[in-house]
Amino acid sequence: MARIDTYWYRHSPWLWLLSPLSLLFCLLVLLRRTLYRWGVLRTVSFAVPLIVVGNITVGGSGKTPLVVFLVELLRQHGYRPGVVSRGYGGRAESWPQTVTAQSDTALVGDEALLLSRRCGCPLVVGPDRVAAVRQLLREHEVDVVISDDGMQHYRMGRDIEIAVLDGERRLGNGLCLPAGPLREGRGRLRSVDFIVANGVARSGEWAMRLQGAEARSLIGGRPRALAEFATTPLHAVAAIGNPARFFHTLRGAGLAITEHPFVDHHPFVQGELDFADGLPVMMTEKDAVKYFPYADQRHWYLPVSATLDDDFSRQLLARLERHRG
User: Fold this and answer.
1) Domain extents for the chain?
2) Do residues 133 and 50 touch, judged by C-beta distance below 8 A?
3) Most buried pick, 13, 172, 256, 276, via CB within 10 A?
4) What is the pLDDT of residues 271-300, one digit of tens each?
5) For the chain, how big is the Rg over CA atoms in Å?
6) DSSP 43
7) Strands 214-217 and 224-225
8) Residue 255's closest CA among 297, 213, 208?
9) What is the Cα–Cα distance from 291 to 286, expressed in whole angstroms?
């Protein structure tokens, strides 16, 4: 049976039965945000600027590649960035956790380890973002913090908000949870500083393109162009918010694939991706960080990088400069 989230993007009529609950959810979220704006609930500010990269929908939209892009951009312009994230899927006994390239995904989560390996900058994760930011600033000399997700974590003060949308799925049926994918009403997008669309952008949005042309083996060795895999069928694995996007990328490169979608952040176990036919297995980079201990010569992953218009970078840097102490 299909999960309810698959119906959010099909405009299924029966979901309107849940619309009273969705309305209540949206009202409660709006009330909570209003209490923070009025100062009834306290927002914590920090000594350095903080950029939130988030979304108003449930599920993946491309936030992590954008965070990597921002880290590289800021470093190129003389900043010392640090990153905080929730550590979703991590089962550490205490939080916050400082993440390194050698951290265990079972403790800190798959996205955290991917960010640490790709960014090479200080990274602290934990459900309490304020505590995570405080630990980051206490342990590292950073002059700007990027929060991977956390748009609805209103206790954490922020100077710049970037909302990321899936350019294909957009806002689904436009309803709040549980009848739709929205964490907040669509009007929330009017208050953010930038809207980045992963894929096709509309008026007032910035288009982000994810590019990846070379696959890497999980056990090391020479990278291979995707085109080299076009001579044989292969298995495609994706445990991300929108697996169809990954499968579409592989097919667009001329690959013949058998799809294996999993729920976002699926915790792979040994042997789970050892298909009996001996064919190559291609997965996302987020999946690869969890399967490295079990991999053999069949297992490959496709790293992707985000590209955006140069004017986006100029406007972001200009806005950030205004918030420097």
Assistant:
1) 4-79+143-209+307-323, 213-303
2) yes
3) 172
4) 999 999 999 999 999 999 999 999 999 999
5) 20
6) P
7) antiparallel
8) 213
9) 9
